[in-house]
Amino acid sequence: MVFVGRDAPMSQTEPLRILLVDDEPSARTLLRRLIERNLEATVFEAEDGLQALESVAANKIELVVSDVSMPVLDGIELLRLLRTDPSWERLEVLMVSHVAAEDKISQIIALGASDYLLKPLQYDHAIKRLMAAAERILKDRPDSDSDAGAKPRVLIADPEADFRDSAERALQGEFSVKTARSLAEILVHLLRWKPTAVFVSPGISGLELDTLNTRIEALVGPDKPNFYRLDEPGSRLEPPIPGEGYAGAIRKSYVAATFASSVGELVLGVPRTARGLKPWADFLENELRTALYQTLGMMTGAEPEPVDEIPADQAPQIFGRLGIRADNELLELLVGVDATDGMAFQLAKAMLGDDIDEEFAIDGFKEVLNVVAGRLRVACAERRVEISMRLPEAHREEPVSEGVAAYRIDSPYSWNGEHFRIFLEVNELTLKVAGGSAKPEPVAAAS
Question: Is-above-0.85 flag for pTM?
Answer without folding.
Answer: no
